[in-house]
Specification:
single chain; about 600 residues; alpha/beta; Leucine-rich repeat, LRR (right-handed beta-alpha superhelix); 22 helices; globular; FBXL15_LRR
């Protein structure tokens, strides 16, 4: 050591005197006091818990830090040189003693040095910092904790549970461990593969969340989105250019003014702008847009050359606007009109237009004039589905004028003025598969005519507003042997007709009997015995008791689900009884 070594007093020597060396390796402090044989006294807990397994200081010198009374003295921010012990080493020891004498606070620590002069305890803590025990800190917090002094660096961070602060003594400039970059494997995917993945996102919620991941995903979502639903309020006007520039691949568009009582919606100019920016539009649905007029529909329909499906619901344009669209849409296949209240004076002069050649589906609901759509229904040579719901006017004439070589496979007549004359006219539909009847003027006569001629019938629904009884159902049971679904709502059927149906219709898989007092245990037992292929049975508000339901414990071997509701004679015990005997059967029984 240097000459300054002689200036140390005996008190200082006594302060750092320890009889034995507990280390098996050399630390920086050991090198400083090696000539005096003074070593630090380490508590046993520190040796066993924190220092076990470490061999040399050289291997772990970057993991040491020191605490004096749970605080870091300035002297330890200086460099501890392992190879050169110059004259400044003794000066550091002198500064250490000055700091020890200034500290009077008492605390607990694993290393205790006694000062015989002041009789005060000072604590020097020697730790090895384990990186796995240090909580991660953010880059911003790391920059705040970093302090540079005299070309040396000190990094502070909190240990787990906030027990204490630690300081790492190092040489040179501060070095921050490099962050391990997170690999985004989707970046290696080409746009074509990512596009296919986005096509599997069927819900709008999933697409919206995925588009927020990054700019690339936002762009892919805009390029692949084909369906868009917008609230067609007036405030949408200023956003129309931005929306449809972003989504330039739309094929389906729904414009719905959700405020039913509000007149202010998008107008004709907005519709013209929207359709001009969506040249590939194939499906368009307009709901409660009351500011769209006939002239606007005539203009924007010219922009929709590829339109295949058009839905109009409660708008204020008249039938003239509808036929302007039909005349401009040469590829239209589906037409749905709901709540058409305004009619022009020259509606009798309307023709089918270009759409009559391609129309396959016509849905009319709350339409109050049959003369408007009569030419369209008659002239649609490829019409397959016709739905008339709650429409005024006399529709018998329209059904009679349907040509014999029609392609109708599905007809719905609900709440329309159709008698047996119009119903019998459907007998010419040889390919009819689905028939729904719910009208006051339809009787057994019309149903018998249909059953005798439409042998391919698979689904039949008879509503409570009709006057159909056993005679019509017997004809269905005898001639419609391919029947798969039968729904009788409010029909006074008895065991006579149901026995015929259960015996002949061996492909019957679904049967619903609702609101009929004539359906009793006898009829249900016939069904359980004869309907071998039956899979779904629904009974509602009928005179069925526990005895009739118990017949399904052995009957209908293919039955998968039975639902019985609002039957006054049933008790809750029959449900548990049936489940105990047919565990695979789904049983839903609601007793009043």
């Amino acid at each position: 050591m240097g000459d300054d070594e002689e200036e140390l007093t005996e008190e200082v020597a006594e302060l750092f005197r320890i009889e034995t060396n507990l280390f098996e390796y050399e630390t920086p402090l050991c090198k400083e006091f090696k000539e005096f044989n003074y070593l630090l006294k380490i508590d046993e807990d520190v040796l066993t818990s924190e220092l076990s397994g470490f061999k040399t200081y050289e291997e772990f010198k970057n993991t040491w830090y020191y605490e004096w009374n749970d605080q870091i003295p300035w002297v330890f921010d200086k460099l501890w040189d392992d190879s050169v012990l110059g004259s400044n080493s003794v000066m550091r020891k002198r500064k250490t003693m000055i700091m020890l004498r200034k500290r009077k606070r008492m605390s607990n620590g694993p290393i205790i040095a006694h000062n015989p002069l002041g009789h005060a305890q000072f604590f020097i803590t020697l730790h090895i910092r384990h990186p796995q025990n240090v909580l991660p800190i953010t880059p911003q917090k790391r920059r705040e904790k970093m302090k540079l002094r005299d070309g040396k660096s000190r990094r502070e961070m909190k240990l787990r549970n906030g027990k204490r602060f630690c300081t790492t003594v190092s040489t040179g400039r501060a070095t921050i461990p490099p962050k391990i970059p997170k690999i985004d494997y989707t970046n290696s995917l080409p746009d074509e593969c990512l596009t296919l993945i986005f096509n599997f996102l069927t819900t709008t919620h999933d697409r919206n969340n995925s588009s927020r991941v990054c700019h690339r995903w936002l762009q892919i979502d805009a390029q692949t989105r084909t369906h868009l639903t917008l609230n067609a309020r007036e405030r949408l006007q200023r956003f129309i250019p931005q929306i449809f520039i972003r989504f330039d691949s739309l094929t389906r568009l729904v414009l719905h003014n959700h405020d039913y009582n509000s007149y202010y919606s998008i107008n004709d100019k907005d519709m013209i702008l929207i359709t001009s920016m969506c040249p590939n539009l194939t499906r368009l649905k307009i709901i409660e847009c009351r500011r769209i007029t006939d002239s606007g529909m005539a203009v924007f329909s010219k922009n929709c050359k590829k339109l295949k499906e058009f839905s109009y619901d409660h708008c204020w344009c008249s039938d003239s606007g509808i036929f302007e669209l039909l005349d401009n849409s040469s590829q239209l296949e589906v037409l749905s009109v709901t709540r058409l209240f305004i009619y022009s004076d020259d509606s009798a002069s309307f023709c089918a237009g270009l759409a009559a050649k391609t129309l396959k589906v016509i849905k009319l609901r709350h339409v109050h004039s049959e003369r408007v759509f009569q030419p369209l229904i008659i002239g649609a040579k490829n019409l397959k589905r016709l739905k008339l719901v709650d429409c005024d006017g006399n529709w018998d004439r329209t059904l009679e004028m349907i040509p014999d070589d029609n392609c109708l496979v599905e007809v719905h007549l609900e709440g329309v003025n159709v008698s047996d004359v119009g119903l019998s006219s459907l007998a010419k539909c040889r390919d009819l598969l689905v028939l729904r009847i719910d009208n006051y003027r339809c009787t057994d006569v019309g149903l018998i005519s249909v059953a005798e001629n439409c042998r391919a019938l698979k689904k039949l629904y008879v509503g409570r507003r009709s006057e159909i009884g056993d005679s019509g159902l017997i004809a269905v049971g005898r001639h419609s042997v391919n029947l798969q679904e039968l729904i009788l709502n409010g029909v006074e059927a008895t065991c006579v007709s149901l026995e015929v149906i259960a015996t002949n219709c061996q492909n019957l898989v679904r049967l619903e009997l609702c609101q009929s007092d004539t359906i009793t245990d006898v009829e249900v037992m016939f069904i359980a015995e004869k309907c071998v292929a039956l899979k779904i049975l629904c009974i509602e508000e009928c005179g069925v008791s526990n005895n009739g339901i118990e017949a399904f414990a052995l009957g209908c071997p293919n039955l998968a689900e039975i639902r019985v509701t609002k039957c006054k004679k049933l008790t809750r015990e029959v449900k548990d009884w049936l489940i105990a005997r047919r565990g695979s059967l789904v049983v839903e029984i609601e007793c009043t």
